[in-house]
Amino acid sequence: MAEEPEVVQVAPTTQIAATTVTLPPFRGNKVELWFVMAEAKFNLASPKITREETKFYHVISVLPPEIAGEVSDIITEPPGDEPYTNLKKAIIARTSLTETQKLKQLLAGQELGGRKPSQLLRHMNSLVNTQAIDEKIIKELFLQQMPVSIQLILVSLTLGLEQLAEVADKIIETTPSAIAPVTFQPETHPTTATISTRPRASTNTTPNVT
C-alpha cells in the first residue's frame, strides 16, 4: 500500500509594508509651518501614518543637531503617551521666536535716515500690515529710531502713534538741529582733568625787547 504524501501545514504570512515618507527640510524660522507640511506628508502616505510613535521617529530623523539639542530630553526618553504631540509642542515652545522678537527681527535696520518720522512709521506699518501686532511694540521700536532729543519729548506725550509721528515731523521742520547725532560723553570724576578742545592761552612770559 502506497504511503500518502505528508501534508505540511504552512502558516499564512503577513506582509508589513514599511511606509516611506520624505519630510521637507526642517525650517527653524517657520517651525509651525513646517509641522503643517510634515503632517500633510503623513496624511498623504499610503497607508496613512497615524501612529504617534511612527510620526515621532520620522520627525527626529530629520531634525538638525541644534534643534535636536533643544529637545534632547524628549528624544532620549520619549513620553509613553503621545510622543509626537509632546515633541511637536516642545519644539515650537523652545525654538520659536516670540511675537515681539519676530517683529523686532522684521523691523531691524529700519532707520529714520532722510525720511520724515511719519514716513518711517508708514513704512514700518506696511511691513506688518498682515499681522495683529500690539501698537505698544511698534511704538517702542519707532521711538528707538528717533533722535534722543525728540524721544524725550515724545515719551512725555499721551498721544496715539500717528499723532506722535506728526509731532516729530513738526519738531524736525522747526528745529533741524534736533536730528543732529547725539554724542554721549562718559562721566568723569571731579578730580579727573577735563580735556578741552579750545586753544590754551599763551604762557609765554618773555618780555618784549624794545
What does this protein structure show overall?
This protein has 10 helices and no strands. With 210 residues, it is mainly α. Among the domains are: 65 residues; 81 residues, no CATH class. The longest helix has 14 residues. About 13% of the residues have low confidence.
Specify the helix fraction band. Answer: 40-55%
Mean pLDDT: 78
Structural class: mainly alpha
Rg over CA atoms, rounded to whole Å, is 34 Å
Specify the overall morphology.
elongated
Taken as a percent bin, the fraction of beta residues is under 5%
Number of strands: 0
Report on the biggest sheet. Answer: none
The helix count comes to 10
Report the uncertain regions.
10-17, 181-199
Distance between the termini: 161 Å
Element-level helix/strand string: HHHHHHHHHH
Protein name: DUF7041 domain-containing protein
Domain DUF7041: 23-107
Region (Disordered): 186-210
Organism: Aquatica leii
